[in-house]
Design goal:
By secondary structure, the chain is mainly beta. The chain has one domain: Beta Barrel (OB fold (Dihydrolipoamide Acetyltransferase, E2P)). It has 3 helices and 12 strands, in the order E-E-H-E-H-E-E-E-E-E-E-E-H-E-E. The strands form 3 sheets. Strands 1, 2, 3, 6, 7, 10, 11 and 12 form an 8-stranded mixed sheet that branches. The chain has a two-stranded antiparallel sheet with strand order 4-5. It has a two-stranded antiparallel ribbon with strand order 8-9. The radius of gyration is 16 Å and the shape is globular. The termini are far apart.
Length: about 160
């Protein structure tokens, strides 16, 4: 039986590409999904993130990686959302749907605020920024899929020209 869990966690991020005008469009890796919204996420409490339902493994692939030791435990996951999902049913009766970017909120001034982050006005989110994320994890008969739904920017580290996206 398939189930979906929604997880919420705080942590630090790097290599953030979660906006319609700024996503990972490297077609060598994302041709099937026409790009991907993604970021590297270092949960403050990795054990709780896993206990709440984040998969440690998908098939033969481990999801928890060694990352930047400057951020928390140095253990990270890649949170992602496809630009296009070729498997979802569309309105025409076929398959394939363009997905919206994750909702990104600006909570740098108001911790409970609902103001959306504007990439054009607020700029990119730099490495080391603090965020709260909402992730949906789908457990099906043949697959486990996680999707980045929401990001709230709590503390912004300015993007520096030397940072690589």
């Amino acid at each position: 039986m398939a189930t979906t869990k929604r997880l919420i966690a705080e942590g630090t991020v790097e290599w953030v590409k979660i906006f319609p005008d700024h996503n990972d469009d490297n077609m060598q890796y994302h041709e099937n999904t026409k790009g991907q919204y993604n970021m590297i996420f270092y949960p403050d409490n990795l054990e709780k993130f896993i206990a709440d339902g984040y998969p440690e493994q998908k098939g033969a692939f481990k999801t928890i990686k060694d990352g930047n030791p400057q951020f928390g435990s140095g253990k990270c996951v890649k949170l992602k959302r496809p630009v296009y999902n070729p498997n979802l049913p569309n309105e025409e009766g076929g398959k394939g749907v363009y997905m919206s970017a994750p909702v990104v909120l600006n909570r740098t001034e108001d911790p409970a605020g609902s103001e959306e982050w504007s990439y054009s006005e607020d700029g990119p989110i730099g490495n080391g920024s603090r965020v709260k994320v909402q992730v949906s994890v789908y457990y099906g008969d043949r697959a486990t899929i996680d999707t980045l739904d929401k990001v709230a920017v709590l503390e912004l580290e300015e993007y520096e020209a030397g940072d690589t996206f």
